[in-house]
Amino acid sequence: MASEFTDIEQKELPQLLRNLLLAAGDSIAKPERKRLYVYLREAADTHALQRNNFDMHPIVSSLQSALLIAQEMGIKGSVLVAVMLYEPLQANVLSLATAREEFGDDTANILTGLAKVNELYSKNPVVESENFRRLLLSFAEDMRVILIMIAVRLNVMRQIRDTLNEEDRTRVANEAAYLYAPLAHKLGLYQIKSELEDLSLKYTNRDIYYNIKEKLNETKASRDKYIAAFIRPIEEKLREAGLKFEVKGRTKSIHSIWNKIRKNKVSFEGIYDLFAVRIILDAPPEKEKQACWLAFSLVTDMYRPDTNRLRNWLSIPKSNGYESLHITVMGPEGKWVEVQIRTQRMDEIAERGVAAHWRYKGVKGESGLDEWLVSVREALENADGGDSLRMMDQFKRDLSEEEVYVFTPRGDLFKLSKGATVLDFAFHIHTKLGSKCIGARVNGKIVPIRYKLSSGDQVEVMTANNQTPKQDWLNIVTTARARTKIRQTLKEMAGTQLDFAKETLERKFKNRKLEYDDAMMMKLVKRLGYKNVTLFYQAIAEGTLDVNAVIERYIEQQKKDSETSEVLYRSAEGFNIPTPVEEESGKEDVLVIDQNLKGIEYTLAKCCNPIYGDEVFGFTTVSGGMKIHRTDCPNAPQMRERFGYRIIKARWAGKSRGKHYPITLRVVGHDDIGIVTNITSIISKETDITLRSISIDSHDGLFSGMLTVMVGDTGKLEALLKKLRTVKGVKQVSRN
Length: 736
What we know:
Elements: H1 7-24, H2 30-46, H3 58-73, H4 78-90, H5 96-103, H6 105-123, H7 129-139, H8 143-159, H9 166-186, H10 190-204, H11 206-218, H12 220-240, E1 245-251, H13 254-264, E2 275-281, H14 288-302, E3 304-312, E4 325-330, E5 336-343, H15 344-352, H16 354-361, H17 367-381, H18 386-399, E6 403-407, E7 413-417, H19 422-429, H20 431-435, E8 437-442, E9 445-447, E10 459-463, H21 480-511, H22 518-527, H23 533-542, H24 547-571, E11 591-593, E12 602-604, E13 616-620, E14 626-630, H25 636-642, E15 647-652, E16 661-670, H26 675-685, E17 690-699, E18 702-711, H27 714-725, E19 730-735
Parallel strand pairs: 2-5, 12-14
Antiparallel strand pairs: 1-2, 3-4, 4-5, 6-7, 8-9, 8-10, 11-15, 13-14, 13-15, 16-18, 16-19, 17-18
Helix pairs in contact: 1-3, 2-4, 3-4, 3-8, 4-6, 5-6, 6-8, 7-9, 8-9, 8-10, 9-10, 10-11, 11-13, 12-14, 15-16, 16-17, 17-18, 19-21, 21-23
């Protein structure tokens, strides 16, 4: 082809084309093959196509994706043609009209869908997973477009293993995890979903991925031996019963193992079901269930089952077509093993997802899938389409298996997550309606606020003026929207109560001619066992804490402090609290955000207090501002997992220009005479470091102190920490 291809690509292309045409078989006619080759060559010759950020040639990439679709998804014909023609279309060597004329309406429709989705993608560089998935599905009227996008992304993930472009690889990997893997799961593409998740983990958490992989390799021999011993008696029983079968043992994906480690808070060694055994039966359609249940009976006769872990997707298949029996049994040596029982037909659906499912539901070959996809398009285009419309409603429910659709008495349609209650629905409509909700009429029947809604329900919310939100409502609702609104309302109500409690306390102080000191009150709050002042005032508002008792304890505290103040002054002789230095604005920091973006407003996050020299990243807040966090911020893992699309690259540049940052240090040591003086003396001698506050608490011969210092960068901070650790009696100094 063109000189634009590298030598390696020139060598790979002929074999790639041969493999692709072999996989396509008769689904692409010979005249079409010739025309395809001509358009691909012309597109390459124009030099109009640009390599992507990973230096992948678009034509090579499209051929690799087409081969993946043919071999691993089992989809052929017009889908493969459309994938190969998309780059010639982009290079303007082929028009949509010509594609329709030469390759048919089906190919042209897929090309139109691909163009729409790619246009959507270009307009939404920051992908918000759930909204984007819905948008994607609405744009891609032909489900094959979604399958193509998943295949393209998997191909990219496979090719970027050795790229030097770490930043884009991380972005692509995060998108694969929170957008493409869930889409693949919904479509029943379990193998592809697992591979996307594993590769994403490999590129974003390399150490975790290789640590689990290494441990799997170390235990492979013993695992294989165990699986063989587990399977042997099962095979004998299945043969005696006259069943035709194949038994496989497979290790769970690295990503699923990592999920179990995180979810169950255990080590790798604590995961008991690292592998699953799959029994695949050869049975005619009319005897499939009978064969599966017979195999189930034989397995559970041999090994004790955990009935709580039985999953029967045989009687009621998943909405994406998945059918199987899952049971966990106690194998030799007291180890739990998951056993999956299914037929060859069910196994192909499990491997290839929606494509195999609809091919089996239709006639043999590709036409079964094509007929279904045609009916999907007809349903989208014709709102009055009788059976097609009902079929489309089922299709929507299949894709949105975790959603319910309910109606108001006026016929307005609302979409909620599966398991949503009447209270969720009320808050979904309006906060005031939710706050006053006492129940509802669902399909004419009165039900309580915790009643779970089903698709098709007609809901009329009932209210009462004296109703107010309760704390336990948070246990009734299931949607994030309702929880947020309830918390906001409870917070507002609590705020009013707290203001009243504070005013009551201050008025009592005034009546008794006592001076109200905030610092002393904070000490008292802690001594009374309250974690924060909000809980303290809440107790007063609720009447569980008597105001007069608080005042008596305050007076006692005041006396105690005055008696010890003289000793404290002597031990801290010569120590002066430095004048507080105002924290400078973060706007003048030498901080590079993303690709040196200018004019971006940002603040330094309070949860981890980053300073110059820390490894940091940016996080786009809901209000549109930017918060800068340390990469080791305790909230970082959750932010990356749930809101990966909001993460922005950031780094410090140049030199620290005299700016100071507040840092809190925790010091723990023996309660020796003069230790506080020694600590403060070291800080006072440091140039460019000032002490803003110090709080010391002694207990059983130990002291714990919190120091807030103003420091310029991590270098100065590390030097200070080293010096403080040399103070006699200091056991630990750490940055909060």
